[in-house]
Amino acid sequence: MKPLRQEILSLLKKQNRIFWNLAKHLSYSLSDLIKELNLLHKEKIIETKNNKISLTSKGKKLTENLLIPINWNKAYSNKLLKKFLKEIKNRPKALQKFDQGVILPKDTIQRTIVMGERQDIDRKNILIIGDDDLVSVSIALTKRAKSITVLEIDSRINSFINSFAKKNNFPLKALTWDVRKPLSVKFKKKFDVFLTDPVETISGIKMFLGRGMESLKENSVFYFGLTNIDCGHKKWLEIQKLILNSGFIFTDIIKDQAFYDFKQFEKYDFGANDIPKKLRNFPIPSAKETYFSSNFIRCFAVNKIKPLVKGKTKINKSFYHDADVF
Fold this sequence. Notes:
CATH architecture of the largest domain: 3-Layer(aba) Sandwich
Number of helices: 11
Order of helices and strands: HHHEEHHHEHEHEEHEHEEH
Number of strands: 9
CATH superfamily of the largest domain: Vaccinia Virus protein VP39
Strand content: 15-25%
Shape: globular
Helix content: 25-40%
């Protein structure tokens, strides 16, 4: 079922609605919405009486397996955060050798809320490439995803996620995988949504986003985090061009959606040691506050997906470092 149709039917399963109420809750043009509603009327899945659009008996049967949308509000977010904090007490520390950086728990929850509000969790098959932020745990706690698969190089994180999934009987599994290796055929064109926080060089972006793109079905979406601190405007432009040329559009850019949690880093002193001396002529102290933020970006596949990489890929110094990433 195409995303627009699924979103319309999910909303109508919750309650009958006038046309303008549907338009308010959907991120599609009026022409696309009208076209889909015409088809649904023609197929006798919906009907309109007294200006209210509702499901027919055929429509009700068709939507039996669809989840009724919930309010992803502050009360729900707080409840989810409380559960999340309880589950991640003994999470693995971030390791520099894997270029790991952990965002604040409340921001992990906020990413889940954003995805939920856009109906990118309900009954979706979700792939996460690299999950030191444990977004998979947060999504699983909603009990609304069809399946969640994590591909992660760090076996410590995989053990933590799999133990959590087994304890709670969630449809979540984590597999040890190196992003340099080709994506397995069993994962190609199998997912509705993928999420990643890529290495923020052009080589890193191509590899992480490229592997994820290979995993997606038609009319799918992906999310990724991108900072301003490690990405100047010219790099942002290049990244946007790469994504647009791959068949996707940008639907959301949420500025400073997440801040990094320094307490979760492995013996890492932020400040002067981060910035080479040749680039500065003044002293820089250690950071005393969480200045390092990430923007959260959502992209939707409009055209045929053209992945940025295929096959086995080698990496060199430019994979982790460039003019912006020290």
